[in-house]
Amino acid sequence: MTLLTQSSTWQALSAHRKNLPHMRELFATDAARFKNMSLSACGLFLDYSKNRATAETLELLFTLANDRKLEAKIKAMFAGEMINTTEKRAVLHTALRSNASQSIIAEGQDIVPEVQQTLDKMQEFVETITSGQWKGYTGKAITDIVSIGIGGSFLGPKVVSQALRPYWNQGLNCHFVANVDGTSISEKLKLLDPETTLFIMSSKSFGTQETLTNTLTAKAWFLAKGGLQSDVAKHFVAVTSNVTKATEFGIDTDNIFPMWDWVGGRYSLWSAIGLPIALLIGMDNFRALLNGAHQMDEHFANAPLAENMPIIMGLLSLWYGNFFNAQSHVVLTYDHYLRGLPAYFQQLDMESNGKSVTLDGTDVDYSTGPVIWGGEGTNGQHAYHQLIHQGTALIPADFIMPLQSHNPIGVHHDQLASNCFGQTQALMQGRTFEEALAELVNSSLTDEEKQLIAKHKVMPGNKPSNTLLMNKLTPETLGALIALYEHRTFVQGAIWDINSFDQWGVELGKNLGNDVLARISAEQDSSALDASSNGLINLYRQGAI
Ligand code: F6P
After folding, report:
1. Total Cβ atoms within 10 A of residue 79
2. What CATH number did the domain enclosing 271 receive?
3. Which residue of 45, 191, 219, 432 is 20 to 30 Å from 28, comparing CA positions?
4. Are residues 273 and 197 located together in one domain of the fold?
5. Is residue 453 included in any domain, yes or no?
6. Is residue 446 part of a domain?
7. Are 221 and 347 found together in one domain?
8. Is the CB of 293 under 6 A from ligand 1?
9. Is residue 170 within 8 Å of 131, Cβ to Cβ?
10. Ligand 1 within 6 A of 204 CB?
11. What is the tens place of the pLDDT at every residue in 532-541?
12. Distance 345 CA to ligand 1 centre (A)
């Protein structure tokens, strides 16, 4: 494969970038721009017309995708090929939401039956809990679920449960514990009754320090509160691919929900890692979530490039990262229920595409994954939108908003929508010096002051944004939305020829942390470490600076 940056398409994109008119002009000269640069799929509507792109831009980006054999790579993923080359694994989170009638071979085995069996096991478990049939050690029904997990074993359940709050079963509360900071679990345990609490320990590896420590603390609390070792099975279940370690830990075999190596942690909410979601919203709604994602899978696998939502979003993001030096991408969710989504997309994209060598181990000579950040609108307008509008960095933005609120009240949704659309308009058109000066014409400022203030009020505009709409935030549209971003991430990794599905970069910190822990725990001398680490450990030992 030709070196990406030396390809003729890459060179053409570089040249093309220099000749792009301001978006104001692109809109002024093309009345059909909105119509031609928007599309609907799987209950979502994407307006990508407020991008620094023309039909020629998109054609060049599609050519780049073809150069990089994107469609073949998409087929390889869905076909269960070992595209996670460094771990020799297939990447088949899409199989978790496939139709039961499908047959998907991974590592020589049809995996759909086990996926369906696990969904059935989840269904049965959810029904015994929500019906009150499952009893704790004193014969009471479960009222509180504690999901213990971190990374993809935390963010997926947490963010999706939060997003689908209108669909929660009554009478069941859910708490999420991730951080190993003792405050996290201590604050939760204060709220709980051991007789009516069920702990779900979620860890694909069953080897994550935070999750093991939090689960041991939960178990110690349970026993200290009066539960017996023989009662643990009534109050602890596990979701893991490491059944042996879970059994050794003391989780009853019947209470272990399997997951598999061909599901990456950041892609795992669709598996039994999503058990807290299913308990809260019910299995029918969980299956609707899966179905929404499945619809997006079908769209991604079959829609032509020019009508393919994940491909268009992925290519446009790459356009800014590689040709405008954009270092970050902001996700702004104009819906309170979606306030956690930026954090979810952070792990999804940054742990996938935060890489710097290609599949064959060559150092890249181009930017790869950007920093993903964001928050809920309209709050961000009163916090960081200033920088997006007038800062020196180009920060492409995604605005996400349902057209209908679950809580229609007064003028609220009108104002939310107006802010959302107003922001994308301001980013696109900016404010010229002449416009700024005209706004000051009746002010009491002197002419000299007006000239100066006007200069400070200039906004360059030409700041790109996508606007994603849905009729309403439902399990289906949320499933489609998350799958859209999963595939958007895939598109970029495929063009960059990196492995989006391993995460070797998280190991060293963990290993060095374990070494520090051993030195702290055993009062071992740490002077062999660098002076900073040694100094910090000594301060920790002193417990005072
Ligand atoms: O941060 C590394 C990582 O492996 C993530 O990819 C994963 O989601 C998280 O840790 C938790 O891993 P596990 O589910 O194996 O406990």
Report:
1. 13
2. 3.40.50.10490
3. 45
4. yes
5. no
6. no
7. no
8. no
9. no
10. yes
11. 999 999 999 9
12. 15
Per-residue pLDDT, 248: 87
User: Both tokens of residue 517?
Assistant: 């822990």
Confirm whether 18 is a catalytic residue.
no
Domain encompassing residue 186 = 100-287
Query: What tokens appear for 516 in the block?
Result: 């520090």
> Long-range contacts: 240-249, Cβ < 8 Å, 24+?
240/201, 240/202, 240/203, 240/204, 240/205, 240/206, 241/204, 241/205, 241/206, 242/203, 242/204, 242/205, 242/206, 242/207, 245/206, 245/207, 246/201, 246/206, 249/206, 249/212, 249/215
Residue 275: closest CA among 376, 186, 142? 142
Residues 106 and 163 in one domain: yes
DSSP H helices in 170-268: 182-189, 209-224, 232-235, 243-249
Mean pLDDT score of the chain, rounded to an integer? 97
- Write the residue with the smallest CA distance to atom 2 of ligand 1: 506
Determine how many CB atoms are found less than 10 A away from the CB of residue 307. Answer: 13
Based on the fold, state whether residues 204 and 235 are members of the same structural domain. Answer: yes
Same domain, yes or no: 158 and 39 = no
Ligand 1 center–CA 166 separation, angstroms: 29
Q: Are residues 201 and 250 in the same domain?
A: yes
What is the whole-number distance in angstroms between the Cα of residue 91 and the centre of ligand 1? 16
Q: Ligand 1 pocket test: which of 147, 148, 176, 208 has the largest number of ligand atoms within 8 Å of its C-beta? A: 208
Q: Which amino acid would we find at residue 253?
A: T
In short, whether 506's Cβ falls inside 6 Å of ligand 1 is yes
Residue 212 has pLDDT above 80, yes or no: yes
Domain count for the chain, please give it: 3
- Told to judge if 22 belongs to the known catalytic residues of this protein, a careful annotator would answer no
Ligand 1 contact, 346 CB (< 6 A)? no
Q: Average pLDDT of 389-401? A: 98
CA triplet 285, 289, 292: central angle to 5 degrees? 130
First to last CA, the chain: 55
Residues 395 and 518 in one domain: no
The stretch 226-238 carries a mean pLDDT of 95
- For residue 397, tell me if it sits in a domain: yes
Asked whether residue 396 falls in the same domain as residue 425, the answer is: yes
Q: Is the CB of 215 under 6 A from ligand 1?
A: no
Cα 28-34-35 angle, rounded to 5 deg: 125
pTM beyond 0.85, yes or no: yes
**Ligand 1: centre distance to CA 153 (Å):** 7
The pLDDT of residue 521: 87
Q: Is pLDDT above 80 for 2?
A: no
211 lines ligand 1 (CB under 6 A): yes
Tell whether ligand 1 has an atom less than 6 A from the beta carbon of residue 84. Answer: no
Cα distances from 86 to residues 241, 360, 461, in angstroms, run 19, 10, 43
Q: Which of 18, 35, 382, 456 is catalytic?
A: 382
State which of 224, 256, 287 marks the end of a domain.
Answer: 287
With beta carbons less than 8 A apart as the criterion, state whether 93 and 267 touch: yes
Dmax over CA atoms of the chain, in Å, equals 83
Quick check: is 73 in a domain?
no
Question: 510 catalytic, yes or no?
Answer: yes
Residue 1, pLDDT > 60, answer: no
